């Protein structure tokens, strides 16, 4: 017995004066609109007629009288199997990559692999694909990540890549829920800025098409010749400074926004455009309050993500075969599981914390393992961070790796805005001049987050800025400044500053760590890096 799938139609009021075009009958159906993922979960005991499936042809297998067609729409790594009669003339145009609408009967399947399949009565080709002449670049056979990066507008059609983007969407939703539960206000700081937050000089200058290299001339009160703005502007390298301003108005704030670094680094961990999750907390006195927030946030995020369809699909791996597949490019699943479990561990035991001073001692005791000798002045290099993450992140559970906090770095190698450590109250034996800051390390990928207490005292901030040659705004007020680009930032210390701290987390790096993708460029839809900006 066949059952018709029906759903109520809601009558909508037509706005006056609006011309509504009639909808052709072929687009109407008594069946509810479902995604492929929803179809795969729909297992009625009887046949259901007049079912419509929209999607893209992934593969076609031609038999004597029928065609077995796999249909996907990005909602699931697994496709729907559709059975199409070869007597249907339109079925000859069912080629890989084509956008189609299939109508038929949803029925229990007699073949292995899935419980139900679609017996097609009607085929409609919405967007043809020239797969017959093999012009469609996405092939069923294995294609290397390097090759796929040359066509970012098409590579997301690969089920694995689509699942990564769905995981990304789920992560944004869960982060929004977490910060709302902690009474943080989501904000949208500017992308174009007047200051280089990190002071590294690796910024993109903003210019119009006719002013590729703006010429600066002294024209009195007028803006420099040929410049859109009155002074040089940049694409932001961090929204932190603007978040500090917003935190004085709104309390705890956060954002997830693109940031830009003109680093000429061509490594698997670097991009020129990437997303940073940044947050600022007002009226906090200790660094532990910031690190605890980071830990709670990541634990909440990973625990929530673990049960999502996208995460489950990404953890499912096929048995190794003779032919290489996209899964073979990923980190082994056992290692990926260790990463997830390490972040989901009970909050009863906090993640390991070690001061920079103690980390250097530990590294120097094992310096024979490293190419670069660890020293107090040189900072931690990638090989040092990997060692610390693996050594200190190992837990009593051999199937889990905990992230590791390294705190209190030397003041000389950190940013100007970080608060100087007070050794009398920090509770740590610090041999040199340090700041209240941290980096969060994970195995293999190294640093995924960093944060600090911000220097909220005007005199101390001015002293640091002057020592670093960053201009010398006077502490007497705006009228006494020399026009520094950071004058507005100093203003925040003049009027109502409070103890505060915050952090930034590399959103793309975190996703690549959880998915097990060795190259961060493969968790981004349209990656940009040194020398490449396709699409």
TrEMBL record:
CDD domains referenced in this protein's UniProt entry, alphabetically: AsxRS_core, EcAsnRS_like_N
Class in the EC hierarchy, top level: ligase
Entry annotated with the keyword Mitochondrion: no
Domain Aminoacyl-transfer RNA synthetases class-II family profile intervals: 165-527
Stored SUPFAM superfamilies: Class II aaRS and biotin synthetases, Nucleic acid-binding proteins
BP term (GO), one: asparaginyl-tRNA aminoacylation
NCBIfam families membership: asnS
Name assigned to this protein: asparagine--tRNA ligase
